[in-house]
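Handoff note, outgoing to incoming analyst
You'll be picking up this chain. Sequence as last confirmed:
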Amino acid sequence: QVQLVESGGGLVQAGGSLRLSCAASGRPFSDYRMSWFRQAPGKEREFVAALGWTAGNTYYGDFVKGRFTISRDNPLNTAYLQMNSLKPEDTAVYYCAARERGTYYNPSEYSYWGQGTQVTVST
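Most recent structure output, in case you need it:
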């Protein structure tokens, strides 16, 4: 089992920045790869960013366009999502997730999910 706890969400003005954190526990960090998804009211869960199995590989949703950066701190068993140039349309609940295999963009491939953290971007 893997437990994931997100933090760092909040209210920010358009153009601002937030850094989300996801602390993992329960199994060695190297056993799985971390990703971020988001879900806005009335919409499906959407892929945001993922860490690849090859060190240094990262993947992003098309809408990110260079604004977000996913990273990890192995000694702390923590993944991060640095979000810059935030827009009102980025408002959503952001979830971190862990997968042991499979494709990074498919939510059904993920076995473990955090509880989510709300990000609200005001105009």
